[in-house]
Structures are given as structure tokens and as C-alpha cells.
Amino acid sequence: MVTIGVVVLLFAAYAVYGKAWRIDAEQHQMADELDKRWNRGAAADSPVPGQPMARMYVPRLDKKWAVVEGVRQADLRRGPGHYKKTARPGEIGNVGIAGHRISSVFWDVDRLRKGDVIVAETRTGWFVYRVVRQRLVLPGQVEVIAPNPDKPGQPPTKAMLTLTTCNPKFQNWQRLVVHAELEREQAKSLGRPAELKGLQ
Questions:
Q1: Residue 10: φ, ψ to 5°
Q2: Which run of H or E residues covers position 121?
Q3: Going from the N-terminus, what domains does the chain have, and what CATH number goes with each?
Q4: pLDDT digits 0-9 by tens, 44-72
Q5: Burial of 77 (0-12, 13-18, 19+ CB in 10 A)
Q6: Which distant-in-sequence residues (6+ apart) come within 8 Å of 53 by Cβ?
Q7: How far is 196 from 119, CA to CA, in rounded Å?
Q8: What residues have CB less than 8 Å from 176, skipping those under 6 apart?
Q9: CA angle in degrees (0–180, nearest 5) for 178-183-187
Q10: Which of 65, 128, 143, 184 would be a feasible disulfide site paired with 152, CB 3.0-4.6 Å?
Q11: Model confidence over 149-159: pLDDT tens digits?
């Protein structure tokens, strides 16, 4: 029984820290890829599946990530992933972002509160979103990433960003969902948004 207990603990430790270490390594690589693409003027409107398409910053969590295009398991092993058929940062509609509930990704996303900032960065601009609510849903409730998650099936009227992850921690029988709405845009030529002060 002791041996089984040790094996279970080791597996749990790998699930949390081993995956986190691997994603951290992938994030460094994707950050470099993103900088190279942006420096050579790669089209902002043509993200490649499995490749980085934007950056996302969450000051309350002291986190930033390169966001990969796609939400397959292979994509999410690189970090947060963009649901391919959802809006892109700044667009009217809903930018859907999924991530694993592990320490290097969305482990503490439940700490986000109404009014907290989420900033998306693309090659051409910054997009400052404010959290409006958090909720728990079942895995099959995909309307949370609909263009208009408030009124699924109706055309979108505002620009939103939605984070989804598993809940509770170490389980996946629910989805934790955080909705945010676009507050403002800022051109890259104006530097970093004031909301990111203190976050590298």
C-alpha cells in the first residue's frame, strides 16, 4: 500500500510539475517564434495551426503567455490555445482561449475577479479587456465560446475574451470560465499599456 501511495504521489507530481516544466520550455520557444514572425512582418490575420498567434498578459496572476493557434492536446502542451473559429484579439465577437489547469498555465485563474485586466498583444496592437464574470459549466456547454456567449445564436455586439479551463483542480468534470470585455485598444507605437506596469 505504501508503494502504491508513493507511485500515485509521484504521478500527481509529474502531472503538475513535469507538464509545467515542459510547457515553460515550449513557451520560451514560442516567444522567440512570435518575435521572429512579427519582426519580419508576418500577416496578423493568418495564424498557423500549432504556431503562436498572440501574447496574453494577466497582471493579477503575474503571468504572460504566448498563445498557440488551436486547442488540440498537441497545441495545449505548448501553452494556452486559441479556439480556431473564435474571434481574434480586438474583433467584435469572442476570443476563446483554453488552457490546462497546471501551475504554468491556468492554475490560479479562479483568482480573477470582476474588473481585473487581461491584455492581448498582437503584431500591430494591444487590447485591454476587463473581467466581467466567472462561472462554472459542464464540459458540453460550448456556448461559452460562442460569438455572443450572453445570447448564443445571436450576432455579437461587443468584443469579448473568454478563458476556459478544467475544474476543480486535478479534475475535469466542470469547466471554469472567465469572461472579459474589451475596454480599449492601444497602438504598438505608443508603447506598453499602463495596465502592464510592473509585469515583464
A1: -65, -40
A2: strand 117-121
A3: 2-196 (2.40.260.10)
A4: 556 789 999 999 999 999 999 999 999 99
A5: middle
A6: 47, 67, 68, 69, 82, 88
A7: 8
A8: 101, 106, 109, 110, 134, 135, 136, 164, 165, 166, 167
A9: 120
A10: 143
A11: 999 999 999 99
